[in-house]
Each structure stands twice: as C-alpha cells, then as structure tokens.
Recover the amino acids of this structure.
C-alpha cells in the first residue's frame, strides 16, 4: 500500500502524527467545498515540489485514512503520480452523526479562515526571487503570474511606492505596473492623473490617453529640468489674458531704448521675477534630423498621393519628412518695471498721451512761448470743456424730450384715422415687415421709461386688442400700425442722439428707419435733435442757445 506499510487494521490514533502515505490509498470523503477541480499549473507545482502542506486526515477502525482537508492536494498528487505525500493524522473517537458533525466543522474552519495571497504579497515574492537569481520563467510558474512579461511587471510594482499603493486601491498588477513605470520616469503628472482616475473607475481610459501624450510630457520634463536646477519657476499652466500678473517677455520692451526684450536676455533679468511655461509644439525634420519651416511643406501631398507626384517648386515633400514634437519655453515677467521694462502697448500709450496732451494744450492755448505746457491753464481749460459738455448733454436731452412730445402727438393724430393715409399701404406693409424681420426684439421692450404696451395704449387711447374687436379692415390696419410705432417709440429715449447700442447695431438702424418712415410717409417734420439720430446733423451743429 505505497509507503504506508501498515496492512492490518491499526489501533485507534490517540494523538496527531505525521505519516507519509501513497495518495492513491487515501479516501477523499465528502467536503463542504463541493468543487475540487485542479488545474494544470497546480498539478505542475505539486509534481515539481511535492505536497508542502500536509493533508489533514482521520483514520477509521480499519486503518483507512479519510481526507478531511486537502482534497485538491490529494487529487493533484495522484495526477502527478506521486507515491508519497505528508498526511497529518488526527485522533478522533467520534462515530456516526457525531463524526459527520466533526468533519463538517473541521472543514469549515479550515476553509473559512484560509486567505489567498494578496497581489502585494505575490509581487513582493517575485521581487525576492529575482534577487535570488531565480529565472523569470520559474518565477512565473511558482507565483502563478504566468509570462515573463507579467513577472517583470510584478517586480516593477514591488519596487514602486505608487505601484504598491495602486494594488492596495484594488488595481490589477498590470495597472499598478503602469503607475510604477510613470513613477520611475518621474512623470508625476501621469501618476497623479491615474491616481484620480482610479478612484473614479476610469483608470484604463486615462492610461490610454496618457500613453498617447507620453512623448510630449517627456519632452517637457527634459526641457524643464535644467531650468528648475537653475532656480527658475515653472508654471503649471500657461497664463492667459492681459489682466494676469504674468506678462509675456514677447510683449515687453526696454523703457530706455524701446527695444524688444528677447529670450537670450533672460540671464540678465532678475530671476525671482521670471517664470517659464514649458509646452510642446509639432515639428517636422528632414532626413538629417534638422527642423524645417512648415510654410515650405507642400501639404497637397500625402501618403495617398501618386508616388510620382513631386512638390511645388521651392517646397518640400512631407512624405520625406518626419513629424515629431519639440519643447518650447515661453518666458513671463512678474515685475517688469524693476528690470527697466514696460509693455510695448504701455510705451505707445505713454507716448500717445504725451502727444495728445500737447495737442490739447495747444488747442486750449496752454503752451508757453518756450513750448512748455502750462498744466494749470490746461487743467482749467479741460474743466471748462467738461462743464460745457455736461451743459450740452442736458440741453440735448431736454430737446429730445420736447421732440418726443411733438412726435407722439403727431403719431396720435395719425392713429386716430379710420384708414391709413392714401397711397401709404405698401410703405406701411414694408415698415411693419421690417420690424418683424429685423427689429422684432423691440416688441418686448419694458424699461421704466419705455414700455411698448403702455406706449401703444397711450397712442391709441386704449388697449389695441380691445379696440381691434369688431373694427373694420381699414381701421384694423391702423391699430396694427400703432403697435409697430409703439415698439419704435420705446427705442427712442430722450438721449437717442448719443447714438445706437455699443454692441447691437440694430438699435440705431431701427431708430433711423422709424424717423425716416414718419418723415417720408406721414409728413412729419424732424426736429434738429432727431436729425442727429438720423445722421443728418451732428450734436455740435445744433444751436442750443435758444
């Protein structure tokens, strides 16, 4: 019976002992673990190393050993054709149902508290075996990692803080190896991005995205490294907008000379005021690796072009060039004045203001015989000019209100008619169409001093809808015109002479269209202040002395 030489019924075991037994002689009894299949890798491991952890068994009254825990080890040993495995035989006096209760209890305890190796433990074991010069092929088998590539990944993870952390978060060894690779390359941006993505369940998508831009980040790190070593600030993102504290060096000039500031002057500037943005741009290089000007590339040619096609004269064939990326450093300054610098626009404004001040002083007679500006006289002249402008605004606004009163009275008289003025039907139709097509937003104007609904009711002497009930066709046309006129009146405040809306040109266009309609179709005479609105006069041409 294999290496179990006991062929007669054995006496009851009184204490636990280790025996070496032929696995073919063991009886694999019922187990709470109903699935006991063994895979090829497990059988290979048993065949190479034998059964390392003894099988747990009990001996019946006839001396037969019954496997209580270790059925998979027993079956794998049989398949590996082993003739001896260690068996830990425990004593038991239980019989019948009591024996079954004991078997089930022991099996539950053995399986319930057995924990599989964690991924962290597995990769650390691989790392230790590598250190002992065990082959990757053998490590793949004993750790069940599989391929040598998987072993390399495991070893990389074991030596990486980011990789080990990734396993603790639930990443696979393959995913953790990606973290380890970026950590080893010094790509903290990728490590941080993948860490955040892992928490959101988007690790694989982010990893694919980062892989596509890995070359860009490597170029940026290589360009930034010497700048960091030299003590320069590297910006995390490029500053935008003219209100930023960072001014691009390309916008600066020397205050004293007006000459542009160039990158080769960086070393002469105060380091603490400088910051660099490092980015990449697409570059094309020729066969010798030299960059080429993209404007010289004939982009009409591509891989689908006829091989016999040649580039235009003086141009390069993109099919003979290599596309790549190159790092670009953009310098910014946080305190230009301290380095004797200013923006080109500030210099222009300063010079322009000087010229404008001289012109204003000349106009005001505030320039001395020696050509110096009399600033006191200039200030007095400017103060008087501003006061005159305020008086003009008040006078024109009053004129606007007076014109509005006369104009609306004219419109009321027009709208009191039972029919439109003779021969005006087509003009009214065009006027109405223009409002609905170009100036429709005026129908909803509701300012404190300009409410289309209220103005329409005032011009008609009642609600347009109520007045339209039972009205004749001709009268209904007049009522419709009232709504159109009211919309335009809402767009003609007292200060319409100032001009139209800064961003909406339709405001001014609508005012001109309305006043032209009243003058050309209804016989209304425009006031001077209204002629400013139509562009026939300027505000300065109006006599405000009356």
């Amino acid at each position: 019976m294999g290496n179990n030489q006991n062929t007669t019924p054995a006496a009851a075991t009184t204490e636990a002992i280790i025996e070496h037994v032929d696995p073919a002689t063991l009886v694999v009894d019922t187990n709470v673990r109903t699935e006991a299949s063994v895979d090829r890798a497990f059988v290979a491991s048993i065949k190479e190393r034998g059964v390392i952890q003894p099988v747990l068994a009990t001996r019946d009254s006839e001396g037969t050993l019954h496997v209580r825990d270790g059925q998979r080890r027993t079956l794998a040993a049989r398949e590996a054709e082993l003739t001896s495995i260690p068996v830990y035989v425990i004593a038991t006096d239980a019989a019948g149902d009591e024996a079954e209760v004991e078997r089930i209890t022991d099996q539950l305890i053995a399986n319930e508290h057995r924990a599989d190796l964690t991924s962290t433990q597995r990769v650390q074991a691989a790392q230790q075996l590598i250190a002992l010069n065990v082959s990757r092929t053998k490590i793949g088998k004993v750790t069940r990692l599989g391929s040598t590539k998987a072993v390399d990944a495991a070893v990389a993870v074991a030596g990486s803080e980011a990789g080990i952390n990734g396993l603790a978060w639930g990443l696979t060894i393959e995913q953790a190896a990606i973290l380890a690779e970026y950590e080893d390359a010094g790509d903290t941006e990728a490590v941080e991005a993948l860490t955040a993505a892992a928490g959101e369940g988007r690790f694989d998508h982010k990893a694919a995205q980062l892989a596509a831009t890995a070359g860009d980040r490597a170029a940026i790190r290589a360009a930034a490294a010497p700048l960091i070593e030299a003590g320069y600030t590297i910006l995390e993102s490029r500053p935008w907008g003219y209100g930023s504290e960072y001014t691009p060096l390309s916008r600066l000039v020397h205050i004293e000379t007006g000459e542009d500031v160039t990158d080769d002057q960086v070393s002469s500037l105060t380091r603490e005021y400088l910051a660099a943005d490092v980015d990449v741009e697409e570059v094309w290089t020729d066969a010798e690796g030299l960059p080429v000007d993209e404007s010289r590339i004939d982009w009409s040619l591509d891989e689908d072009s006829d091989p016999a096609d040649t580039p235009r004269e003086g141009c390069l064939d993109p099919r003979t060039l290599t596309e790549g990326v190159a790092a670009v450093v953009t310098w910014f300054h946080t305190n230009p004045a301290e380095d004797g610098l200013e923006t080109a626009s500030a210099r222009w404004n300063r010079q322009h203001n000087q010229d404008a001040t001289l012109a204003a002083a000349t106009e005001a007679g505030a320039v001395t015989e020696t050509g110096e500006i009399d600033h006191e006289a200039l200030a007095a002249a400017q103060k008087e000019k501003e006061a005159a402008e305020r008086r003009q605004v008040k006078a024109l606004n009053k004129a606007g209100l007076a014109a509005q009163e006369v104009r609306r009275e004219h419109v009321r008289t027009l709208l009191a008619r039972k029919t439109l003025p003779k021969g005006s039907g087509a003009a009214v139709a065009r006027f109405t169409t223009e409002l609905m097509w170009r100036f429709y937003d005026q129908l909803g104007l509701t300012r404190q001093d300009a409410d289309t609904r209220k103005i329409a009711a005032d011009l008609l002497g009642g609600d347009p809808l109520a007045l339209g009930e039972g009205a004749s066709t001709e009268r209904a046309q007049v009522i419709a015109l009232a709504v159109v006129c009211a919309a335009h009146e809402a767009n003609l405040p007292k200060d319409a002479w100032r001009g139209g809306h800064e961003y909406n040109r339709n405001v001014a266009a609508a005012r001109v269209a309305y006043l032209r309609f009243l003058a050309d179709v209804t016989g209304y005479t425009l006031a001077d202040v209204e002629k400013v609105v139509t562009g026939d006069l300027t505000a300065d041409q109006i006599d405000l002395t009356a």
Q: What stands out?
A: DSSP finds 19 helices and 13 strands in the chain.
